[in-house]
Here is the input.
Amino acid sequence: MSDWESVIGLEIHAQLATVSKIFSGASTAFGAAPNTQACVVDLGMPGVLPVLNHEAVNMAIRFGVAIGAEIDHHSVFARKNYFYPDLPKGYQISQFELPIVGKGHIFISPDEGVSKEVGITRAHLEEDAGKSIHDQFPEQTAIDLNRAGTPLLEIVSEPDMRSAKEAVAYARKIHSLVRYLEICDGNMQEGSFRCDANVSVRRKGDQKLGTRAELKNINSFRFLERAINHEIERQIDLIEDGGKVVQETRLYDSERDETRSMRSKEEANDYRYFPDPDLLPVAISDEDIARIRAALPELPEQKKQRYINDLGLSDYNAELLTSSRDTAIYFETALAAAPELVAQLANWILGDLTGALNKANVEMTAVPIEPAMLAQLVTRIADSTISGKIAKEVFEAMWQGEGSADEIIEARGLKQITDSGAIETLIDEVIAANPEQVAQFRAGKEKVLGFFVGQIMKQSQGKANPGQVNAMLREKLKA
Amino acid sequence: MAKSVTEISRGLAAGKFSSVEVTQDYLARIAEFNPSLNCFISVTDELALAQARQADDRRAGGEADALTGVPLAHKDLFCTDGVRTSCASRILDNFIAPYDAKVIENFKSAGAVMLGKTNMDEFAMGSSNENSHYGCVANPWNTAHVPGGSSGGSAAAVAAGLAPGASGTDTGGSIRQPAAFCGVTGIKPTYGRVSRYGMIAFASSLDQGGPFARSAEDCALLLRTMAGFDRRDSTCSEQAVPDYPASIGRGVEGLKIGLPVEYFAEGLDSKLAAVIETAVDELRRLGAEIQDISLPNTGLSIPTYYVVAMAECSSNLSRFDGVRFGYRCEDPVDLEDLYKRSRGEGFGAEVKRRILIGTYALSAGYYDAYYLKAQQLRRMIKDDFQKAFSSVDLILGPTTPGVAFRIGAKTDDPVSMYLQDIYTISLNLAGLPGMSLPVGFVDGLPVGMQLIGNYFDEAGLLNAAHSYQQVTDWHLQTPELKV
Here is the structure.
């Protein structure tokens, strides 16, 4: 295994968040009844013509500017010809030569402290196909053309990734970027963001690339990692057993966790690309590009640097907080409510909140605890209303929808005991009940202090202020 | 009975007759002569009379346009809401579009009446109208001869007086050649002048709609309504449409007209050449300055055209797959069978030939040699014209190398058929406007003269043709029809 190197490139299809389709006025909204969002243009009726939605071009340029890519002033739509029932015209309008976005790059960090540049070959606009539904009617295939004509940005990377982990880091980075740019909703379940992986292996030191297989049908980052690892293993086993990798398209089956051949190179279509005579070449001016560049939001890399320099966060935390736009928005909204508690908020978001989201398999956009609620919780720790330990209980209650931190503290009577008289009473009781441990402490066994603190906290049901307990206990025991 | 669009328009305006009366007259003529001529695929009597009644009401209300109440025929590749649009193909024999082509919309909003949908070569592929699922159209001048194609039904209908005017489309000569064969006037505008929306595509970069009528004056009236910007066609021009009827009548005094030596060379019928020369003399007498010019790449236009047109059509016709509309084969066993048999049974021989050639020309390994090379030649052909228009205002020549041939004479020889378009095809490649007008007869069959203009100079073409028609009567000749 160790003398092998894998080479991976990704093709990502991001559905652009335009209101209407790329070549017609029909809506792109997800989930409508079948074929209710397909107009005569989407249906490929005779005589109808495509008209370019310039918003899709603007979104592609946004992406290009964000990855430092060359944007050509002259871009051409081409027809990719093949027959399939969910492709109404018998060709897909795509781009072949002269895509909108040329060479660019992004940085990924597959491991803490590691930064690697990944090249992006190109990104081009195309229309999505409809959907073939095979399991709804026995012996028949149903066609839903609602998706037909939805704009896609196909982002093609260089074969710069060397492991499944790097490929996932790259895919996540692109996912985060398109969300930051607000050009794609990133919803992988609904197919808004889809990854195909080109995978090959070669012996370390070899300059020549091995024969690649293209993996399709991957709809989560977890499956992406698993599918690539499987494919790498399959190819190495194959070569080590004297076989040869054939160029082919393989489908990833997440239920069986395996890839299987879909079509070989020989069976592949000759797409007969040629410029679409129904559409004029797209002219993009320097002013267009400058205007779009000026309107770009703060990008993850800039945000991360700001968190490090202005907020004093660690490189690691800054990276994690900015890795998704939703997380960054959550953090910044919470911070606005508790501006002094930068580190505390970062820790809660990256710790308990992320943990709870993962455990419940909930997206940040659907989090039940509002940023202001978390800010209040952190503030209550800071002002000693509750201890860090009690805070976990309050957090759990907030997650369950029991209300704000203050409401829960009040309702459950969790307010910390800071009255020194009350704490003294507790300490006295515990000391009186445990003469043996008192003797041990006085004999120099400092560790016993922890036992007393634990007992006192238990007696107070966790509400005694731990700082006060510590200080007062020490005084009492020494006396 | 009134014969020209202009006469009908004036007669309606003067209250000499109603639209219902004129429409009834034409429907009666169609009923009488269409069975032998086969100009129409569909005759829309009821719709026509309903539209005529509406037109009369509109005129009574004082809201009339020049075309309100004028009955017209439309080539059966312009989609018409609720009326079958077959493209003369079995594959669309059952197709009823839920929308109107922009051209149809324009005529509707002007209040024109639709008599029916005219016969054509299947998917506009052909030069004789013999490639129609509904049978060939007979040339009204001699029913043993073809009317030309692909818009043969429209040209023959106008020649036979079954409609005063008709729409057509021209991809390589499909308006001008049948106009010449049938002795009527037809104009193919500049590419982008008339919207292609709802016009079933043959070759998208070449297709252009235009009118047929009895005179240049009528064509001016019809084109004014057909032309104009349409945001649903990205290749449609935003240039304002001139008032064509108002821009004819300027005469040709001092007009520089070029005769391409290549258009009068080998291959041109000598009797036809003599007729054209007589027409040139007429224009000279009217004050036009005639000079020889050269379009050196004329010989390249046919091979260039057939690569470009077939490549585009091979892709354009992919949507006819038996899945969503049109013909579907009986009991397909699987998807591939559905595709193969629906298309195999639905398309005619010429359409299949062109899809195959176009598919080949776009295939991996051949694209550069065919499609890319054709695009380069296309630019050279365009440059020839640009150079010519630096020294002349109009270009003149024959529309076709010979007059209408006998039905069946060229069906076994596609290349000889393709050569019919030698003088017309290069305009489509260059995107230039051109028209054909009748200038005489050879062996009892009409001869067409072609005028070619610079981009968007339809007014210049119509004016020159009108000047000629003011002093000649070839356009007023009518064939004797037998039932």
